[in-house]
Design brief:
The structure holds two protein chains of two kinds. Chain A is α/β, with parallel strands linked by helices. Chain A has helices spanning 45-52, 75-82, 100-111, 116-129, 145-157, 175-192, 203-209, 227-231, 236-242; strands at residues 5-16, 19-30, 34-38, 60-65, 68-69, 85-88, 163-167, 195-199, 212-217, 220-225. In chain A, strands 6-7-8-3-9-10 form a six-stranded mixed β-sheet. In chain A, strands 2-1-4-5 form a four-stranded antiparallel β-sheet, with helices on one face. Classes of the chains: A alpha/beta, B mainly alpha. Chain A binds chain B through residues 50, 53, 55, 79-80, 82-83, 85, 87, 89-91, 93-96, 106-107, 110-111, 155, and chain B through 116-117, 120-122, 124-131, 136.
Chain lengths: 252, 260
């Protein structure tokens, strides 16, 4: 039985100057499902994620999250919705002058009346989830790229969000850490019914975490299917994009 | 003929800065909650540049005394060096020099810090977490410079007058006691409306305004940075350049209003 979509794009267009990035993008995601978005660089994958959190507004078309038109709801309501969303940035985007623990605690201190003890408990729990509990008192400059990404993931989870958006969660990671991160994404979907959108180039990650995959090309969703059917598709554009990578096995 | 593009960019820049200033002012009620970060900024923008203010302030006072002495000694009035140095420092030089030093050191740091955060997606991360960057980043910096610019101006005044006294005594044989007596006497003059030493408070008022100018311009340049490391460099350069221009122009108008 399918539920109503929690995220919906309908004929979304977005341009930056003379560059048309999204040219009529249409797709939706149901609650508790994980959608992966693949596609060539510069085709609008990260731009799509930024529309969902309200960092960008479409030039035309509809971006709907939990039934709200993101282009027409007040800022205060967007801010409230964002507390139920997590965003894992490609670079980690950690606040450089704060320790890892303070980075995680920041949204709780700013947006909730929780006590410092409760905040510390939640920070410790989330760092445990991504296996870097011993990094709590380090600064981002003291962390490797993989650790930064895991801290970014822990920070995205700190509010126990309903929706998590991942911008290339496996980029720049070694296979062991990539597998660990993919496992966390799967656990969130399976155990907590979190809705996820994963922008990713790495096929093992997509195969491991996604319920469905969209192929984004020239600002449109060219193809959508389950990972199994997606990677066995003979669509000429997809075949050209994936090259000899189609048969890479799953990592989790 | 100035291209339309430059005129539009000019008004967009200054409109953004005015909007930023008004928005941060609307968040002043958040000061007690931000005390820890305000304290850090007070330290960085105050203690961090104190040695520069001490050194430059002393030499500015010495230069002022030297120039005043050259002119006054031709008419045998070198005893009045203290009056000239004290008034010159309190009215113009101390707030102006302090603001220029703060623009070059603290303002450039503000632009670079916020610019680096902008290009490394940290500002977007704050927005996504429903955290207001103006409360977290701009408010503590504004409060810090609103406090420290007048405080450092007072320090600049003191060391400048002392430096001038040294030159007056060493170069023009004016006794230090007489120099200080005339300097303090000149500064005691009160204003028409406010029964307080007018020249000191005029200088401190200017310093307060300069503190706001440096913070708002520097933070606005930082927040609007794009284009990686090159963009951070451009933002920092613009922050210092625009701050200095705004300090000089606003100084003229404040002087005109206060002393006309």
């Amino acid at each position: 039985m399918s539920s109503s979509p929690i995220i919906r794009f309908k004929d979304v267009h977005k341009s930056f100057g003379s560059h048309n990035i999204l040219k009529g993008l249409t797709f939706d995601v149901e609650k508790g499902r994980t959608l992966a978005i693949m596609g060539p660089s510069g085709t609008g994958k990260s731009v799509t994620l930024r529309h969902i959190v309200g960092l960008l507004q479409p030039d035309s078309g509809l971006v709907e999250v939990e039934g709200h038109d993101m282009a027409h709801i007040p800022q205060a309501e967007i801010a409230e919705m964002r507390t139920r969303m997590g965003f894992v940035f490609q670079s980690g985007a950690l606040i450089n002058w704060m320790t890892v623990a303070d980075n995680l605690a920041l949204p709780l201190r700013e947006n909730t009346p929780l006590s410092e003890d409760e905040i510390a408990r939640r920070v410790s729990e989330k760092l445990d989830w991504v296996h870097i509990a011993d990094a709590a008192h380090k600064f981002p400059s003291e962390l490797s790229g993989g650790m930064k990404k895991r801290v970014g993931l822990a920070r995205a989870l700190i509010n126990d969000p309903d929706i998590i958006l991942y911008d290339e969660p496996n980029a720049g990671l070694d296979p062991e850490i990539a597998t660990a991160i993919n496992r966390v994404i799967c656990e969130l979907t399976n155990n907590l019914s979190v809705t996820s959108i994963v922008v990713e180039h790495r096929i093992p990650c997509v195969k491991a975490v996604a319920d469905e995959v969209i192929f984004l090309d020239e600002g449109r969703a060219l193809l959508r299917d389950t990972p199994k059917n997606f990677f066995s598709s003979e669509h000429p554009r997809l075949v050209r994009f994936l090259g000899d990578q189609r048969d890479i096995p799953t990592t989790t | 003929m100035i291209p339309t593009r430059l005129i539009v960019a000019f008004f967009r820049d200054w409109g953004f800065r005015l909007d930023l200033y008004l928005k941060v002012n609307a968040r002043l009620g958040d000061i007690p909650r931000r005390w820890q970060w305000i304290t850090e900024q007070l330290y960085q923008s105050g203690i961090g540049v104190l040695h520069v203010i001490l050194l430059v302030g002393t030499f500015i006072g010495m230069i002022a005394a030297l120039q005043a002495g050259i002119a006054l000694s031709t008419v045998g009035q070198q005893d009045q060096i203290g009056t000239f140095v004290a008034l010159g420092l309190a009215r113009e030089m101390a707030p102006f020099i302090t603001a220029i030093i703060l623009a070059a050191t603290v303002g450039s740091a503000y632009a670079a810090e916020l610019g680096t955060m902008a290009v490394s997606e940290e500002l977007e991360a704050l927005e996504v977490m429903s955290i207001d960057p103006l409360r977290l980043l701009v408010l503590p910096r504004l409060v810090a410079l609103l406090v420290m610019c007048p405080v450092l101006t007072i320090i600049c005044n003191i060391v400048g007058v002392l430096g001038g006294g040294f030159v007056a005594q060493a170069q023009y044989h004016v006794s230090f006691d007489l120099y200080m007596e005339l300097a303090l006497e000149a500064l005691r003059a009160t204003g028409t409306w406010i029964p307080l030493p007018k020249d000191i408070f005029a200088g401190l008022f200017k310093a307060f305004v300069f503190g706001a100018i440096v913070t708002v311009i520097s933070c606005s340049c930082g927040l609007r940075t794009h284009g990686g490391a090159l963009g951070v460099g451009t933002a920092t350069r613009r922050a210092v350049r625009d701050s200095i221009i705004a300090i000089i122009i606003s100084n003229y108008f404040m002087t005109w209003i206060i002393y006309r």
